[in-house]
Design a protein that fits this description.
11 helices, 70% helix, mainly alpha
Length: 294
């Protein structure tokens, strides 16, 4: 097993292909997380809100388990369990012609899209950071987390603490070993990342009396600061604004979103953070040069 692993790491093509295949499998799991985690959190919040009477406690013990593992995946329409051969990333969707094997209900394109996106981005990360396998594997974890947060925030306007807060700590741990930036830069990146959007939030609220963004956005930018360092924060903020403007206008023009419907900022931060992860140094140099700083 160790010899096989070493052989994969020593060959760039094998390493990229292996990471891509792993990404496809992880993408299938990310679909589960994107769908189930908000439901799990909502149920947990509801239990906390409800008064814990004896009847309610008794009923809660009879509730069927619902988590990232249980119950097994099934068709949302006919509720027939999905068999193993029907759950192969991307391939099963093509074999099934995009429909449930039992009731022929169309399967959302999101499922193969997330799987394919995760596989492609995993391959890009592996290629970009090769031969530094440790950094590549760490950045794969960040990439998968950003994909998950993008999907959840787009659906529910929620960036769960279950993902953002561990991501902050993981970024600090990764950079304790200096894989992406120094620990000092990572620490201040987390602090400045959180406080920058926190300040904008309260300034906007004082002026307009409205909430301009959620607290999850602060934590996500703090996580990106912990991974990439404080010096990447200006690039991330600028990129997220540009990405947000482009995607937001495109969705409105194409008629896929109402003008009055709020657009979550988390996906734009995630996209900007991933771009900064891959090409942030070049973009930072270009930005500083354009600003006349260097």
């Amino acid at each position: 097993m160790i010899d096989t692993f070493n052989a994969i790491i020593e060959n760039q093509i094998l390493f990229v292909i292996s990471c891509s295949m792993l990404g496809l499998v992880i993408g299938s799991f990310l679909n589960v997380v994107i769908y189930r985690l908000p439901i799990m959190l909502e149920r947990e919040w509801q239990r906390e809100i409800n008064s814990a009477t004896e009847d309610e406690l008794a009923n809660s013990n009879t509730e069927k388990a619902f988590n990232l593992v249980t119950p097994n995946s099934r068709c949302s329409q006919c509720e027939v369990p999905i068999k193993a051969w029907q759950n192969i990333p991307v391939i099963s969707y093509l074999l099934l012609a995009g429909k449930c094997h039992s009731c022929k209900t169309p399967i959302s394109l999101r499922y193969p899209f997330v799987e394919l996106l995760t596989g492609i981005l995993s391959a890009v990360v592996a290629w970009h950071f090769y031969p530094d396998a440790d950094t590549a594997l760490a950045c794969l974890v960040l990439t998968w987390a950003l994909i998950t947060l993008t999907g959840i925030d787009y659906d529910t306007y929620l960036l769960p603490d279950n993902i953002t807060l561990p991501l902050v700590w993981l970024g600090l741990i990764v950079n304790y070993f200096g894989l992406i930036t120094s620990l000092e830069s990572a620490l201040w990146g987390a602090v400045v990342g959180y406080l920058s959007l926190w300040s904008v939030f309260w300034l906007f609220k004082l002026i307009t009396g409205k909430d301009g963004m959620g607290y999850g956005d602060f934590k996500l930018l703090a996580a990106l600061g912990a991974w990439l360092g404080w010096h990447m924060l200006p690039v991330i903020i600028i990129l997220s604004s540009l990405v947000g403007a482009f995607i937001g206008i495109s969705l409105i023009v194409l008629g896929n979103r109402e003008k009055t419907k709020p657009i979550p900022f988390g996906p734009y931060l995630a996209i900007a953070g991933w771009i900064a992860l891959m090409w942030g140094s070049e973009l930072n140099t270009l930005y500083l040069s354009y600003a006349g700083i260097v």
